[in-house]
Design goal:
It is built from four helices and no strands. It is mostly helical. The longest helix is centred in the first third of the chain and has 26 residues. The protein starts with a helix and ends with a helix.
Length: about 100
């Protein structure tokens, strides 16, 4: 009985990992709107971490794009980027 319970738990964990992996692959499929949104939000974070982000055109474009695409009315991925980008925007005096 214990072995059966352990097997069931292991299968459930594997199934969840497979579902998470499939969702990640869909998100990372080039050419999709969600991919572009992840790319721009990630770029905004990378540029923020590189420093001098408030005056960098590349950061400003990526930041604005991320604000437009990442919310619940669009790609709904702000939870992945919001903490860092709120901090980045605050340092520049931007709203998030």
């Amino acid at each position: 009985v214990v072995a059966l319970g352990t097997s069931s738990i292991a299968l459930a964990v594997i199934a969840k990992d497979e579902m998470d992996n499939a969702a990640m692959l869909r998100r990372q499929e080039p050419g999709t709107e969600k991919y572009a949104c992840h790319e721009m939000c990630g770029s905004a974070i990378a540029l923020y971490e590189a420093g001098n982000h408030c005056d960098e055109d590349a950061f400003l474009v990526a930041y604005e794009y991320c604000l437009l695409c990442a919310g619940p009315g669009d790609q709904d991925i702000w939870s992945y980027y919001g903490t860092t980008l709120r901090r980045a925007g605050k340092e520049c005096g931007f709203s998030t």
